[in-house]
Every structure is written in C-alpha cells, then in structure tokens.
Design goal:
Distance between the termini: 16 Å
Protein name: EamA family transporter
Shape: globular
Radius of gyration: 18 Å
Number of domains: 1
Largest sheet: none
Family: Belongs to the EamA transporter family.
Order of helices and strands: HHHHHHHHHHHH
Number of strands: 0
GO cellular component, one term: membrane
Helix content: over 70%
Organism: Ructibacterium gallinarum
Domain EamA: 146-283
Number of helices: 12
Strand content: under 5%
Structural class: mainly alpha
C-alpha cells in the first residue's frame, strides 16, 4: 500500500508542476492569484474528505501556522521560478528541497542510516548534479531573479513536509484534516491579501482563463498533502522523501521532454537513470 501512496504523491507533485507551467504559458502572470485559488481548491478538498467532521486541538495550531507560511512561500516561489526559468531546472530545485525533511529524520528523529539509505541518497545527489548541466557540460545559465524565486520555493516546500511530519508525530497520527484545513485557510487569506495589491486589476481575467489549471493544481496539491500525512508515520522520513524527490525529478523531466520539448543532454539522461536507480536502492 505504501508504494501506491508514493506513486500517488509523485504523480501529484508532477501534475502541480505541469499545471503551473501551462498556466504561465497561457497568461504570463497572476502568480499570487493562481496560488490563492489553488490553495482554496486544496482547502475544499480537505473539507470534502473530512465530511465536515472536524475536531480541532490546540496542539495543531502552531504547526498549522508554520505550514501556512511555508506553503505560501512554496506556491508563489514555485510559480515565479517557473516563469523565470525552465520547468526541468525549477523542478530540480523543488525536488532537492525534500533534503530538508530527510535530514530532519536523521538529525532530530534519530532514524538509522544504513548502507543502502546512504548509497541511495548519494546517488540522488549525483543525479541532481548531472541533470543540472546542458549539452556542453556547463551549468545552465540562471538569473539572480530565478535564484531568489527558487530559494523561496526550496525553503517553503521543504518546510511544508517537515511541518507535516512534526505535526503527525506530536499528535500521534491524529488531526490530519484539521491541520490542513487550518493551514490552508490561513494560506488562502495570506495569498488573497497579497493578490489584491499587484493583481487586482487583472484578477477577473486570471480567474477566468486560469480556471482549469488552478483547479487541477489545487486537487493535486490536496492529494499530495493528504497522502504525505498518511505516510508520515508509516515510513521513515529518510526513505520517504528521497523517493518522492527522485520520482518527481524523473516524471517531471519526462513531461518536459515529451510535452514541452525541452532537450536534455547525455549527462542529464544519465542523471535520470541514476535517479531511477536511487529509488530502487532506497527501497531495498
């Protein structure tokens, strides 16, 4: 069952990246409104899943606030990074961010490090480095704007997963829906407030033309977060997040190649192969 949940998370992560890219290709703007709308859809997802049976607990509040801040950073940073750079490179950095909860598992939770875990993580690092290069073997040209956006997305995405893990451990696997409803509700408020300043004149256009994309992204986000919470107590963070990271890299790269026609070099193909092998090693 765990492998099915992992596949669902990986596909959900990929779908989010693809819908963000498709949205930007169509509208070339509206990062805040898209983020707010997709967060609202994810919020509706958790309200539907819970069937309105919510039991709030004070223990959830601090973790939910931390997740809301991280989520807002991840949503806006990712969309802006995609607008400033290629999908494959942005996806690389976002997938890399799962190193944060992985090391949280090692350093704070005291999860054991055996040979296969260490070897798998090293393979993943090598895979990330190789994917980062173009045909001539030099690093892809990036701008300061992209670096800033990608850094915000990196920290936000990594801390989202870490806060989820922390909350589930603290609450003994309870209050999944309550945690996400509070966190997404705060995120919607924050992102909507941010939207009203730079995008209020074009808001109706963004909402109308981006409908399909933010609905799809929000549903995928809801599925990813729900399955992540379910798996957080069923798998060690040191295995779960590297597998998600490598899987997200591979599937998004395939979409970049076959859908967006982004050409990869020999080194990048080798990196994808190593990433696939890393998943196998991490599951031994």
């Amino acid at each position: 069952m765990n492998i099915i949940f992992l596949i669902g998370i990986i596909l959900g992560v990929t779908l989010q990246q693809v819908t963000r890219k498709a949205y930007y290709n169509r509208l070339s703007g509206g990062a805040y409104s898209f983020s707010a709308a997709s967060a609202f859809v994810a919020l509706l997802f958790f309200l539907i899943v819970s069937k309105g049976r919510l039991e709030f607990n004070r223990q959830v509040l601090g973790y939910a606030a931390g997740f809301a801040l991280a989520y807002s950073m991840a949503c806006v940073g990712t969309l802006l990074a995609i607008s400033a750079g290629p999908l494959s490179l942005t996806s690389l950095v976002i997938s890399y961010s799962l190193i944060i909860p992985t090391f949280y598992g090692f350093a704070v939770l005291g999860e054991p490090i055996d040979f296969f875990i260490l070897f798998g993580v090293i393979l993943l690092f090598v895979s990330l480095v190789l994917i980062h290069f173009e045909k001539n073997g030099t690093e892809k040209k990036i701008t300061l704007k992209w670096v800033i956006y990608a850094a915000v997305a990196f920290v936000g995405n990594g801390m989202c997963s870490t806060m989820q893990k922390m909350q589930q451990i603290k609450c003994n696997g309870l209050y999944k829906n309550e945690f996400m409803v509070i966190a997404l509700g705060v995120s919607v408020i924050v992102l909507t407030a941010a939207t009203l300043i730079p995008e209020r004149k074009s808001l109706s256009v963004y909402m109308k033309k981006g409908f399909v994309w933010y609905i799809s992204c929000g549903i995928a986000n809801g599925v990813v977060n729900y399955l992540t919470l379910v798996l957080s107590l069923r798998m060690p963070a040191s295995i779960m997040f590297p597998v998600i990271s490598a899987g997200g890299i591979i599937t998004t790269a395939l979409v970049s190649i076959f859908v967006y026609k982004e050409k990869l070099s020999l080194q990048q193909y080798i990196g994808l192969g190593l990433g696939t092998f890393a998943i196998v090693v991490l599951n031994i």
